[in-house]
Amino acid sequence: MTRRITLAAVAAVALAFGACSREAPAPTSATTPAPATTGGSQEAVSQAGDATVRASAVQTSTLPPQVAAEYGIVRDDRSVLLLVAIRRGPAGQETAVPARITATVTDLRGRRQPVTMREMRTKGPGTEVLLDYIGTVDVSPPDTLRFELTVALDGGATSTMQFARDFFPR
């Protein structure tokens, strides 16, 4: 299975839950203000210099079993996958951009959790190697989680994103 199909599967799951999302205050950036948008999906988008940062969050129980296995995570209603992709270049010709990501999540009770992010490198079509960042966080549905991410590119550009997502028992 190619990485593009895997990301397409995660995106399809995220889109399916788009009606359940709500937006937190717009993000700020240390270098350039970059509003996060969702366009009705589970994806938040911002800019870090000339790179586009895309973040999504879904309950791991909604992932196809092969995607969960590839990511090395357990499918569970009480676990949320945070997926962050940083890309540079025109659509269809984008390249992955390495970054340092710091993420925290706050639930409705005010409980704050750090999210340990790790690199996920997989082979894409041809010889292309794709790089994404993933982490998981616990949730007790029903709940709303507020995600706060700081993305720092090697070249010095940074972006801070904030977005919220609702999660329900399944």
UniProtKB/TrEMBL annotation:
One Pfam family matching this protein: DUF4426
What keywords tag this UniProt record?
Signal
Residue ranges constituting the DUF4426 domain according to the UniProt record: 47-169
Tell me which domain of life the UniProt entry assigns to the organism this sequence originates from. Bacteria
InterPro entries this protein is in? DUF4426 (IPR025218)
Q: Which residues cross the membrane?
A: none
Q: Disordered: where is this region? A: 23-50
Please list which residues make up the signal peptide: 1-26
Compositional bias, Low complexity, is annotated for: 24-38
- What is this protein identified as? DUF4426 domain-containing protein
Q: Which organism is it from?
A: Lysobacter niastensis
